[in-house]
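Today's session is about reading a structure prediction critically. Students often jump straight to the picture, but the first step is always the sequence itself: look for stretches that repeat, for charged clusters, for runs of hydrophobic residues. Only then move on to the predicted structure, which in these notes is written as discrete structure tokens rather than atom positions. Here is the chain we will use throughout the hour.
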Amino acid sequence: QVEPPGSYQQDPWAMTDEEKLQAVPQIHKEGNELYRQGKVPEAAAKYYDAIACLKNLQMKEQPGSPDWIELDQKITPLLLNYCQCKLQCEEYYEVLDHCSSILNKYEDNVKAYFKRGKAHAAVWNVAEAQADFAKVLALDPSLRPVVSKELRSLEARLREKDAEDKIRFKGIFSQ
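Below is the predicted structure for this chain, in token form.
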């Protein structure tokens, strides 16, 4: 296949450390554009590639060193974008895992709490979702309208589930 000049993109595994560092902003930008176009799985793949480049560089640093921390701070927004894609793809347990890992390092990350709260709500972890949404409000009270909407949605889903359960289990114990 012949590609136009400048369109070839080297795979991350074949790049030098410097090339990886330089490629990340472009890969991030491509992921953002794909996301805006509604190509969510493709965007997730781009974010994953950018994260892989940075993680590869991070493995060569001493954990906790200034360079390691700097790379980690570049990984976090990419990981949050990746989690947003995974939320839309309904891959909730992956979101829970990644957001929890972010919160273990950065316990004031509002976006990680919000995304984890949405994932908890989706998998019926009601208490955990409510706790995460409460933490979002504690960290950023200006998000009250968005959080209230999520909590109302969760409550509505719970009422719907309870109604379905009543119908499903009606008469099960009266035989």
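Discussion point for the tutorial: The radius of gyration is 20 Å.
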